[in-house]
Specification:
single chain; about 190 residues; rod-shaped; mainly alpha
Length: about 190
């Protein structure tokens, strides 16, 4: 009779552990989804700011069409990107590079740098970039927690039984240290 109670106690403990682990995995997956939503919101805010920024620069630097077009094209690719965080990060890296080039062009236009509308847009974009970075760190921390729980023993057995998959980190390349080259008209470096 004692052995039956021991077996029931062990089975109950295993069942409770399994339920607890399953619920923890579900919560972690929800945290990852929620934190991805925060990144998506900030990216959309950035996408909305960029056309205004480009239009402001156009008024001062109309002969910089190539740089402005690169920003417009990179924004369009980033907006249309709906794949995995890896794919979206690739498109975001292209947009960040195009924006760096645009701000390098702006340096050559003192009147533009003093324009209040441009300064306000630049400040809003800076705040948005900071929020994207904070959201990215939050998302990646949640991904790390989920992936760790999926990989470690014995929760990995529950994760594989119920089809939990590892999430992908959202990695945006660090700012490049190289200074973009700016060319005016027909000038060559």
């Amino acid at each position: 009779m004692v052995s039956v109670y021991v077996i029931l106690a062990i089975a109950g403990t295993v069942l409770l552990y399994g339920m607890g682990t399953y619920n923890k995995l579900v919560r972690l997956r929800q945290h990852v989804s929620e934190s991805w939503s925060a990144i998506d919101t900030e990216l959309k805010r950035r996408y909305d700011l960029i056309p205004n920024l480009v239009e402001t620069v156009k008024g001062y630097a109309s002969h910089e069409r190539e740089t402005l077009q690169a920003v417009i094209d990179a924004r369009a690719r980033a907006v249309a990107s709906t794949g995995s965080p890896e794919e979206q990060a690739r498109d975001e890296n292209m947009l960040v590079g195009a924006l760096r080039q645009l701000f390098a062009v702006v340096e050559a236009y003192p009147d533009l740098k003093a324009n209040q509308n441009f300064l306000r847009l630049q400040e809003e974009l800076t705040v948005t970039e900071d929020r994207i970075q904070a959201s990215r760190r939050f998302y990646n921390a949640n991904v790390r927690d989920l992936n760790t729980r999926i990989k470690v023993f014995p929760s990995n057995m529950i994760a594989s039984m119920f089809g939990f998959r590892q999430a992908t980190f959202f990695e945006i390349a660090d700012a490049e240290r190289a200074v973009p080259q700016v060319r005016f008209g027909g000038e060559r470096p």
